[in-house]
TrEMBL record:
Keywords: Flavoprotein, FMN, Oxidoreductase. Pfam families: Nitroreductase. It comes from the Bacteria. SUPFAM superfamilies: FMN-dependent nitroreductase-like. InterPro entries: Nitroreductase, Nitroreductase-like, Nitroreductase/BluB. Coiled coil: none annotated. This is Nitroreductase family protein. The keyword Disulfide bond does not apply. The keyword Flavoprotein applies. CDD domains: iodotyrosine_dehalogenase. Residues 31-200 form the Nitroreductase domain.
């Protein structure tokens, strides 16, 4: 049975062809300037900016509109220190061999290692959780759908919102990430999805040469 109640699409903005082309180019120019940053300044970032970016992430398309995500935004130095300590322990095992040779070889051009000082330097860490169960209402315990797709898109919105506000981010995925659930006191129905490091880049921040090599349109797209 279709129980849809519909509203008019009255906040959608259309553009003429030229404006559309200009806007698509302007957005490409804007998003081209997004780089993963691994050296952050300790300059504070207002909580309201983080709140607005998370509200934007919460607008992502998702399975059955259950919005199967939770964002834990952390600015507490004590909590950041706990996260750094635990992440570095896991990363040390990873870089000391648990990752396997092929994976470690793939990471060499990025120059990453087990030291993660930015987990304490950056003013904000956002731990992103996916919810296996939930629903639209706070009290719901329904099955969620397309959870990884939904949370992945929301994370993309979040990164884009923060970049648009003039902030740098780093997607960090220590392996395993279950310690984040404990530190953030999240329920068993949730899994840690990603840790986003957020702040101003350090003045001497760099980007690996390897990271700016992007596949061409012809490589990533087929028109039919
Ligand atoms: N989580 C580790 C390793 C790592 C893995 C991938 I795939 C990267 O693109 C980058 C790093 C770390 O953060 O160092």
């Amino acid at each position: 049975m279709n129980e849809e109640k519909a509203l008019p699409l009255n906040d959608f903005i259309s553009y003429d062809d030229n404006t559309m082309l200009e806007k698509s180019l302007a957005f490409f120019d804007h998003i081209k300037r997004r780089h993963s940053v691994r050296k952050f300044s300790d300059k504070p970032v207002a909580k309201s900016v983080i709140e607005n970016a998370i509200k934007a992430a919460g607008r992502a398309p998702n399975g059955a509109n259950h919005q199967p995500w939770h964002f834990c935004a952390i600015s507490s130095s004590e909590v950041k220190k706990q996260i750094r300590d635990q992440a570095e322990q896991h990363e040390k095992r990873f870089y000391d061999g648990s990752a396997g040779e092929e994976w470690l070889d793939a990471l060499k051009p990025l120059g990453t290692d087990a030291n993660k000082p930015y987990l304490e330097t950056a003013p904000w860490l956002i731990a992103i959780f996916s919810q296996k169960k939930g629903g639209l209402e706070e009290s719901d315990n329904k099955q969620n759908y397309y959870i990884h797709e939904s949370v992945g898109i929301a994370t993309g919105f979040l990164i884009t919102a923060l970049h648009t506000a003039g902030l740098a981010t780093l997607t960090h995925t220590p392996k395993p990430m279950s310690f984040l659930s404990k530190i953030c006191k999240r329920p068993d129905t949730e899994r840690a999805y990603m840790l986003l490091v957020v702040g101003h880049p350090a003045e001497d921040a760099t980007i690996p040469e390897h990271a700016v090599k992007k596949k061409s349109l012809a490589q990533i797209c087929t028109f039919m």
